[in-house]
Amino acid sequence: MSNNNFDCDVLIIGGGLVGSVLATAFSRAKLRTVLIEARDPKELGQASFDDRSVALANGSQRILDGLGLWEALVSDAEPIRSIHISERGRFGVSRILATEEGVPALGYTLENRVLINAIWTDLSREKCFTCIAPAQLKKITRNADAVKAEVSLADGNQIITGRLLVAADGARSSVREALSIDMMEDKYSQNAVVLNIKTEVHHNGRAFERFTTGGPLALLPLSRSRMAVVWTHPEEELERSMLLDEVAFRDELQNTFGHRLGKLTRIGVRSSYPLARVRSEQRVGGRAVLVGNAAVSLHPVAGQAFNVALRDVAVLTEIINEERVSQGLQADIGGSELLARYDELRRNDQRRVAAFTHALIRLFGYRGSPVAITRALGLMAFDIMPGAKAQLARHTMGLAGRLPRLARGLRLA
User: Fold this and answer.
1) Where do the structural domains in the chain lie, given as residue ranges?
2) Which partner from 31, 80, 376, 395 sits 20 to 30 angstroms from 157, CA to CA?
3) Are the CB atoms for 98 and 207 separated by under 8 Å?
């Protein structure tokens, strides 16, 4: 099949944060990109107290900067200058400080709305990018040379042909199902309750990870003197907690977190979602690649999911760009060798982070007293072992192992 017979180089399914960042990266590499999204991604809404947010690791900030997006985000991004780790009812405490790690911030917290708005404003200027939305994926067909996706639109069906298909459509990926790729799921019997709050004492860039008998409680600094809360609840406690009135819920949250930030002065709207670790049996194959939550979906403890996805984006774009630079028009960006190379480069990072978050939940979810005492001692020891703490910090900042160009603060070319 000649290059002229393709509608695009890359076809992305899913226009959320991961899919839209990937489309930006491909556009920077001058790849003809078509993105299929079930919703209208331009309906972004207005700023509100209850904006949902995402935690960006230090390495993720570099990736966004390398893509030319950070300038539009920096004024809204709240730096994380320290992370305080503790366990409720135990004496062990550990702290990770940006100053000790030699970085201006361990990471940043940013509203999803701000990030997606900046991305789509940028994409609207890209001549090699096309968005087809709202549209539903109906069928995928693959052969040795091409991949075809049939999508349903309001006025009928359309078939798009490309060299590579990328699934960026989340943990319950319709692409994974269409490709008959099996998945493994670890159900935690937990739900995350998500909300924003205000506190009597300003956060000053402090983040908190507090482990409780019901699951971890994370507080992340946000702009406008707010904090984002991700509070893990056992399934059997979720309904009761969600039905509490604002005062009763605030009191329970205050009791669980403590008074390190003084009194909780405002409680935002609560939402919840079930927690599980989902891993695809395959991440590549037959001119298709799964990225982000479609490849591996994580528990929100340590806030690693989107950061892993951004490293997927950075590595995939880099190796495709290298292939095109070395092979020119003959480059097969969906070929088996290229996808096998991507899988090899990403496999260890995905597995390591998935295992790390899973182990945290298993360790701190165990309520037995001897194990709890060991955990407390471990936190104290960890806090006075700079080498161990620095190693963990490098991993959570996305700065460990082999880094793609974007994660090193470099542009693609």
Assistant:
1) 3-185+276-408
2) 31
3) no
**pLDDT at res. 365:** 52
Write the DSSP assignment of 51-111 as a string of letters.
Answer: --EEEEEHHHHHHHHHTT-GGGTTTTPEEE-EEEEEETTS--EEEEEHHHHTSS-SEEEEE
Residue 405 has pLDDT above 80, yes or no: yes
> Which SS3 state, helix, strand or coil, does residue 125 take?
coil
pLDDT at 46: 59
Q: What pLDDT is stored for residue 50 in this prediction? A: 73
> How is residue 340 written in tokens?
């096998």
**Residues 6 or more apart whose Cβ sits within 8 Å of residue 122:** 24, 68, 69, 72
User: Taking the model in full, what pTM does it have?
Assistant: 0.88
402: Cβ–Cβ under 8 A, 6 or more apart, which residues?
345
